[in-house]
Amino acid sequence: MERTCLAVILAAGDSTRMKSSKSKVLHPVAGRPMIAHVVEAVASAGISSVALVVGRDAEDVAKAASIAGVGIESYLQKERLGTGHAVLAAREAIAQGYDDILVTYGDVPLQTDGPLKAARQGLTDGSDVVVIGFHTDRPTGYGRLLVKDGELIAIREEKDATDAERTVTWCNSGLMAINGRKALDLLSRIGNANAKGEFYLTDLVEIARSLGGRVTAVDAPEIEMTGCNTRAELAVIERFWQERRRHQMMLSGVTMIAPETVFLAYDTVIGQDALIEPNVVFGPGAVIDSGAVIHAFSHIEGAHVSQGATVGPFARLRPGADLGTGSKVGNFCEVKNGRLGEGAKVNHLTYIGDAVIGAGSNIGAGTITCNYDGVNKSETVIGENAFIGSNSSLVAPVTIGDGAYIASGSVITVNVPADALALGRARQENKPGRATLLRERALAIKAAKKAKA
To answer: How far apart are CA 414 and CA 350, in angstroms?
Structure first.
């Protein structure tokens, strides 16, 4: 029978060092609040029940933590009296009788399911408490994990450690798993007889051992246990996340010429044999199919790029952009809520908004779909194999038929039938010698102003 588990996620900190108007767990990593990354790791470990301990911005934190398939109940921590006190804010949830209780933190967004599963396995194997630790060559300031004969006998804080204990490089991450049947009893035994008068979760190690219980520790990569307290640390976490995800993508068959310059969102999908050139930024909701090419200095968000399509350089795809197979959006173009058919081309200096462009159509440089009248958005529909001449303005709502030809510089305000030629511009008129007269007049005015001054 599968063991049940409750994850208690501590997210009630005041975030004072973040110097922010909102809770630190709401700050994004890869375009997603860090608390959501933590809940995703918990879900990946097979845990579908979460007790979220909240304080500042409680409603916003709960909303940000919500992901499909995970049941979340929020518990308000009214006072800040230490980690042990914070966990007991979720007393009601813990009392429901889970096999395992997993305690983690909302400001550790790089954690993955591996160490969480290992901690739960430790409970399955008979431990009452399993602490997640990490090895580091910079242990100063961390509590050391002291192990003897395979059991964790203590977590020794830096200030209390002997010289020999300070040489230990296995450190406490703060994350731990607790036998769910004993959790409330163990937690209620934590005292506050210390300099700060706080209830420390780490005291569970000695409490459990004093009651004859087994306490062990499992290891996690140091990077995964990186916590966030300041904007500087947030930037470090972002860098670690990006490096890890880029590496995963390249191993899956994506080519990145300069991966350190490519920035991904938490949900970016890129297919095998796609090529990503330098300095490309993906916002949330980007899907790039196999064989697509994203040229340098492009920004893509909420968009789909089909197989063999090319984007950029210096292109922007906004939400709703959908590029068909083999289509092209070239340099200094922007597409918003626009669908390009197979082989359609939007080569340069063009804005396509709220539009459908048929297969094989060519949109000339400087073309604008005029989709907004100041109140409403309207759609432009361009048929297949149409040709839109350079510097044309298509005033929506308007439809251009299959095979139609729009003369350069036209302003199109009514529908154009299939295979028709449309000209929507003023007739040119030349005035011989008029340019000389205009220059002489302008010079005379300038001289008069100078004399008057």
So the answer is: 20
